[in-house]
Amino acid sequence: MINEPLLRSLLFIPGNQPKMLAKAFSVYPDAFVLDLEDSVPISEKKNAREIVMEHIHKIRKTDILIIPRVNSLSTEFIDDDLSAVVGPEIWGISVGKISSPEDLIVLDQKISKLEKKCGIEVGKIRLLAWLETVSGIVNSHQICQSNDRLAAVCFGAEDYTNDMEIPRHTTSLLVDNPSLAYPRTVIPIHSKAAGIFALDSPYFGYKDETGLINDCQNAKQYGFQGKFAIHPGQIDTINKIFSPSKEEYDKALQEINAFKISEAMGRGSTSLQNQVIDVPVVERALKLVKKYESVFGQGE
Known about the structure:
Blueprint: E1 9-14, H1 18-22, E2 31-35, H2 45-60, E3 65-66, E4 69-70, H3 78-85, E5 92-95, H4 101-118, E6 126-131, H5 134-138, H6 140-144, E7 150-155, H7 157-164, H8 181-194, E8 197-200, H9 209-222, E9 226-229, H10 235-241, H11 246-264, E10 270-272, E11 275-277, H12 279-296
Parallel strand pairs: 1-2, 1-9, 2-3, 4-5, 5-6, 6-7, 7-8, 8-9
Antiparallel strand pairs: 10-11
Helix pairs in contact: 2-3, 11-12
């Protein structure tokens, strides 16, 4: 993920809601996801495309990434959706229900034709693939490795539990059912092996701050680097949890310094606050320092 942008918080905005799109100038996620899929009823698909087309140029002035979400390949809407949003002002496209590497090949071909038509570099527009079906989870390793456009894979818990025919429960006291542990484990592992982002499913209790915090912390422990938001009020919490804290940064610097001193004395490990500091610990600390400074700047 060298030179990739931050993708901690990605805010969904229904594509058929111009008032919500107009509020984009007052909120600051890492990316806006202008949604043409689940938040837009079938009768509003055409209207949503037109509204999104009208607002992309305006929203781009915020300098926040624009990543429209189009309808899946299995729908009749995919070609019109892509034609409406592909252009120089978007960073990527989010596509639901990716089930196999072949799906990405088809999408790559469709987007390449539109990039040529728009006069932009072929391959410039990135893909965010939603793994939210049983097939998508089973094939997640191959999907993550399959296409140079792929910037991230996104876990869709609602569609996954629907496909599995199991309930999904999210509350402050119980964050998701154990059946989500497997996809939430394999998606970050396979994405890490491929050098791409893993982004977690949104938390639908938009007034439940405690539940959101628990859900974000849980996702972070699995290895997700970011999360989708369904309400602007979720952005700050998501950004905070998916960024290193000042305390973590200071501790990482202490670990690095302690190891350097130990190394200069000819030792391969040392201790700090009753914890062993060896090569893997220092390498992890160096990554955390780099991430913190990319978010907040050096020495902040």
